[in-house]
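Backbone geometry:
***
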Amino acid sequence: MKKAAKFVIQGTTQGFFFRQFIKENAESLSLRGFVRNLSNGDLEVIVEGENYSIDKIEKILKRGPKHSNIRNVIKEERRWTGEFPDFKILRF
Protein backbone atom coordinates (compact mmCIF):
# COMPACT_ATOMS: atom_id res chain seq x y z
CA MET A 1 0.00 0.00 0.00
CA LYS A 2 1.25 3.48 -0.90
CA LYS A 3 1.81 5.92 1.91
CA ALA A 4 3.42 9.31 2.54
CA ALA A 5 4.96 10.98 5.57
CA LYS A 6 6.72 14.11 6.69
CA PHE A 7 9.53 13.88 9.25
CA VAL A 8 11.20 16.74 11.10
CA ILE A 9 14.54 15.73 12.57
CA GLN A 10 15.86 17.69 15.54
CA GLY A 11 19.39 17.37 16.82
CA THR A 12 22.97 17.67 15.67
CA THR A 13 22.82 16.86 11.97
CA GLN A 14 25.15 19.40 10.35
CA GLY A 15 28.58 18.33 9.15
CA PHE A 16 27.84 14.59 9.14
CA PHE A 17 26.59 14.25 5.54
CA PHE A 18 23.15 13.66 7.07
CA ARG A 19 21.23 14.76 3.99
CA GLN A 20 23.28 12.45 1.77
CA PHE A 21 22.79 9.65 4.32
CA ILE A 22 19.01 10.16 4.10
CA LYS A 23 19.05 10.29 0.29
CA GLU A 24 21.05 7.06 -0.03
CA ASN A 25 18.78 5.21 2.41
CA ALA A 26 15.59 6.57 0.82
CA GLU A 27 16.76 5.51 -2.64
CA SER A 28 17.70 2.03 -1.40
CA LEU A 29 14.12 1.72 -0.08
CA SER A 30 12.62 3.02 -3.37
CA LEU A 31 11.23 6.09 -1.63
CA ARG A 32 10.59 9.36 -3.44
CA GLY A 33 10.51 12.88 -2.05
CA PHE A 34 13.11 15.23 -0.62
CA VAL A 35 15.21 16.32 2.33
CA ARG A 36 16.07 19.93 3.14
CA ASN A 37 17.43 22.09 5.92
CA LEU A 38 14.96 24.29 7.74
CA SER A 39 15.88 27.81 8.86
CA ASN A 40 15.93 26.72 12.54
CA GLY A 41 18.56 24.02 11.88
CA ASP A 42 16.15 21.06 11.78
CA LEU A 43 15.85 18.79 8.75
CA GLU A 44 12.59 18.17 6.92
CA VAL A 45 12.06 14.91 5.05
CA ILE A 46 9.06 14.20 2.83
CA VAL A 47 8.76 10.62 1.55
CA GLU A 48 6.30 8.63 -0.51
CA GLY A 49 6.39 4.89 -1.04
CA GLU A 50 5.35 1.56 0.37
CA ASN A 51 4.30 1.27 4.04
CA TYR A 52 7.22 -1.02 4.87
CA SER A 53 9.75 1.39 3.34
CA ILE A 54 8.41 4.38 5.26
CA ASP A 55 8.45 2.44 8.53
CA LYS A 56 12.05 1.41 7.78
CA ILE A 57 13.22 4.97 6.96
CA GLU A 58 11.66 6.19 10.21
CA LYS A 59 13.91 3.82 12.17
CA ILE A 60 16.92 4.91 10.12
CA LEU A 61 16.16 8.60 10.75
CA LYS A 62 15.93 8.00 14.50
CA ARG A 63 19.36 6.35 14.45
CA GLY A 64 21.10 8.74 12.03
CA PRO A 65 24.63 8.41 10.68
CA LYS A 66 27.70 7.97 12.85
CA HIS A 67 28.47 10.98 15.10
CA SER A 68 25.04 12.59 14.68
CA ASN A 69 22.95 13.26 17.77
CA ILE A 70 19.23 12.92 17.12
CA ARG A 71 17.10 14.45 19.89
CA ASN A 72 13.69 13.98 18.31
CA VAL A 73 11.97 12.83 15.12
CA ILE A 74 8.48 14.21 14.57
CA LYS A 75 6.33 12.23 12.14
CA GLU A 76 3.23 13.45 10.33
CA GLU A 77 1.21 11.09 8.15
CA ARG A 78 0.38 12.57 4.75
CA ARG A 79 -1.74 11.70 1.78
CA TRP A 80 0.15 9.96 -1.04
CA THR A 81 0.14 12.13 -4.17
CA GLY A 82 2.70 10.52 -6.49
CA GLU A 83 4.14 13.96 -7.25
CA PHE A 84 7.81 13.05 -6.75
CA PRO A 85 9.74 11.38 -9.60
CA ASP A 86 12.76 10.59 -7.38
CA PHE A 87 14.44 11.58 -4.10
CA LYS A 88 16.30 14.90 -3.97
CA ILE A 89 18.37 16.98 -1.62
CA LEU A 90 16.91 20.48 -1.80
CA ARG A 91 19.00 23.56 -1.15
CA PHE A 92 17.74 26.90 0.20
Observations:
- The mean pLDDT is 92.
- The beta strands are 2-12, 32-37, 43-50, 69-78, 87-89.
